[in-house]
Write a structure and sequence with these properties.
The complex is a heterodimer of chains A (about 250) and B (about 190).
Chain A (H helix, E strand, L loop, with lengths): L17 E3 L2 E2 L2 E2 L2 E2 H21 L8 H21 L7 H17 L12 H23 L17 H43 L5 H37 L4
Antiparallel strand pairs in A: 1-4, 2-3
Helix pairs in contact in A: 1-2, 1-3, 2-3, 2-6, 3-6, 4-5, 4-6, 5-6
Chain B lengths: L1 H14 L1 H5 L15 H133 L6 H15 L1
Helix pairs in contact in B: 3-4
The chains are: A mainly alpha (about 250), B mainly alpha (about 190).
Chain lengths: ~250, ~190
């Protein structure tokens, strides 16, 4: 992580560097290290799935099994949370899962950049998801979608309070969705970096933090998967509101 | 615990510029530098849409086809296995029936053969018995004839002997008729 022997702070790994400066109409659209890793995520996951599905044998091999397990994993998440009508959005939810999982996992590669450790990325995804779900709900149910803010069977005198609470809860969804992912990725990577710094600083006693770094790396791989799973399942749960606003 | 770590990091990043500038970096959290947002959002949109298109055109239909094809194949194979099992059960039933029929026929044939053999044996026995009875009758007849002949010879000898004895002992010449009467009377007396 300390490239070329230079001493960098634990936050250096999150620096955005512009590899190809691009500016269109006064807007900075530079190709950054973040963009490079997004392209790598797309390339790696697409190549993986193309390789895994190239043979499509009846009895799957290892690669094909992984591809099918990931497909069925997301398909079951979506079906369990939204029913069969949600399957229409399967490609989108599947892409979210693969993109976030790919970003989190590739972020574990030393010297790499973790795309999902940036608020800009996770907030954009969350906002697109929540706004998209709201639009789908409004198209499907019209004003009936606003039942999502008032559960049925609630006494009328409670309604003003409850509607406020539900609206706030609805509006915090994109915040919690984006902050959870970016904060987890950032905290994990920063902790790893801090402990890795101790390994060098403590000399021979650095074996102790080294052990921690190894353990934390395993934990971070688990969290990389877990956060992709959480992001996907929350997308499914929120999508369910668009189909069934009466909860 | 994670929240506390994050809180500490955020505080460090925000409060101590020295910490961040250690490696000659700009102060503050890189995540909160809003001038870095537009390129990230733009390239996120580009790459995400690209991935969405690639996955939904190349990968998802193929995976779906493979999984559904396998389901269909499994269902078909299970149905075929059930059909073959039924067929096997029917074949076993037919075999058992054929076996029972064959056994019954074999029993019938055996019984018929036995009856035939018994009838033949009985007929041969009866024939043999008849033959033996006839032979026995013949033999009896022959014995009776021989006996009669012997008896007749005995009379002749007795007659001769009586004539000769009478002539020798009494010196009487007895004619044949009276001698014969005397012999017959003696034979009748003695049985």
């Amino acid at each position: 992580m300390a490239a070329g022997g230079e001493a960098h702070g634990p936050l250096h790994q999150f620096e955005i560097t512009r590899l190809i400066p691009i500016e269109v109409g006064g807007v900075d659209l530079s190709f950054t290290n973040s963009a490079l890793w997004m392209v790598i995520i797309v390339a790696v996951s697409t190549l993986f799935f193309l390789a895994a599905t190239s043979k499509a044998s009846l009895v799957p091999g290892r690669l094909q099994s992984v591809a099918e397990i990931s497909y069925e994993f997301v398909a079951n998440l979506l079906k369990d949370n939204t029913g069969t009508q949600g399957m229409k959005y399967f490609p989108f939810v599947f892409t979210i899962f693969i993109f976030v999982l790919g970003a989190n996992m590739l972020g574990m590669v030393p010297y790499s950049f973790t795309v999902t450790s940036h608020l800009a990325v996770t907030a954009t995804m969350s906002l697109v998801i929540i706004i998209g779900i709201t639009v789908i709900g409004l198209i499907k149910h019209g004003f009936g979608f606003f039942h999502v803010f008032l559960p049925s069977g609630v006494p009328m005198w409670l309604a003003p309070l409850l509607i406020v609470i539900e609206v706030i809860s609805y509006l915090t969804r994109p915040v919690s969705l984006s902050v959870r992912l970016f904060a987890n990725m950032m905290a994990g990577h920063t902790t790893l970096k801090v402990f890795a710094g101790f390994v060098v600083a403590l000399g021979l006693a650095g074996v102790v933090p080294l052990f921690f770094v190894v353990a934390l790396t395993a934990l971070e791989i688990l969290i990389a998967f877990l956060q992709a799973y959480i992001f996907t399942i929350l997308t499914c749960i929120y999508l369910n509101d668009a189909f069934h606003p009466h909860h | 615990m994670r929240q506390y770590i994050l809180g500490a990091i955020l505080a460090l990043g925000a409060v101590t510029p020295a910490f961040a500038s250690e490696g000659g970096e700009k102060a503050g959290l890189p995540q909160l530098r809003f001038e870095d947002f537009p390129p990230q959002i733009f390239w996120l949109a580009v790459t995400f849409i690209l991935l969405l298109v690639l996955l939904s055109t190349l990968v998802v239909p193929k995976l779906q086809g493979t999984i559904e094809g396998r389901m269909a194949k499994l269902d078909g194979d299970l149905a075929e296995a059930g059909r073959l099992k039924d067929e096997a059960a029917a074949a076993i039933a037919a075999y058992n029936q054929a076996l029972a029929e064959a056994r019954a026929r074999a029993n019938a044939i055996a019984a018929e053969a036995k009856a035939k053999i018994e009838a033949e044996a009985a007929a041969r026995k009866a024939e043999l018995e008849a033959k033996l009875a006839a032979e026995a009758k013949d033999a009896e007849a022959r014995i009776a004839a021989t006996k009669d002949a012997a008896l007749a010879e005995v009379r002749g000898i007795a007659l001769d002997a009586a004539q000769a004895i009478t002539a020798k002992v009494a010196g009487l010449e007895v004619d044949e008729a009276s001698a014969a009467a005397a012999v017959d009377a003696a034979l009748a007396r003695n049985g």
